[in-house]
Design a protein that fits this description.
2 helices; five-stranded mixed sheet; globular; alpha+beta
Amino acid sequence: MQITFTLNHKKVTAEIAADTVLLDLVRSLGCKSVKRGCETANCGLCTVFLDEKPVLSCSVLAARVNGCSVTTLEGLQEEAAEFGAFIADQGAEQCG
């Protein structure tokens, strides 16, 4: 099955199996920030934004994102840099 969606602000077309979960799809497309944790939708390591709402990608079938927008940490690098700079400017220490 072929799907088309927006991944981190770029239009993507992918050929997937009917049982492919979103976690496996985004990792296969290079988004390594999305981690495989418990695989039971409990830990949250696999969280991505689907149409600007957080979802657990281990429990979403990839076919459901057809026509949607998916954002991972790779798509939030600018915001993360701004936030880190703000924290540093305020004199706070940033662990990790």
